[in-house]
Specification:
137 residues; alpha/beta; Collagenase (Catalytic Domain); 4 strands; 21% strand; Endoribonuclease YbeY
Length: 137
């Protein structure tokens, strides 16, 4: 099950049913099964506090992913997304907000299925996967 939660921002997920179906298709395409996935949409300040409290990082970010799965090939987690950051990134990249939002939604799943982006090569691979899944509706 995929659930969307709104914390301290005025935001509605565009086409929630279609978005959930698209996210499920990514999980399936990566060879995983879905258990429980929670997206928490919030502000920069809210996510900064999460970053400080749980990761001991003192900087803004667009997404933080927590993997709660205890089984192989099963997706279970919490994905926090700063709507402020997504809006700013979309403007900076000259992309529509919804496209940048979808990229970040997919990015969180890719972390949960084992992709990393700490090194340049990993980041390129993850970006290619995001681009691929953005072509699927």
């Amino acid at each position: 099950m995929i659930q969307f939660f709104i914390e301290d921002v005025d935001f509605k997920v565009p086409q929630p049913r279609k978005t959930k179906s698209w996210l499920q298709s990514i999980i399936k395409a990566e060879g995983f099964m879905l258990n429980q996935l929670n997206y928490i949409f919030c502000s920069d300040e809210y996510l900064l506090n999460v970053n400080r409290q749980y990761l001991e990082h003192d900087f803004y970010t667009d997404i933080i992913t927590f993997d709660n799965s205890e089984e192989e090939a099963v997706v279970e987690g919490d994905i926090f997304i700063s709507i402020d950051r997504v809006k700013d990134n979309a403007q900076e990249l000259k992309k529509p907000f919804e496209e940048e939002l979808r990229r970040v939604l997919a990015h969180g799943i890719l972390h949960l299925v084992g992709y990393d982006d700490h090194e340049d090569e990993q980041e390129q691979e993850m970006r290619a996967k995001e681009d691929f899944y953005l072509t699927i509706s």
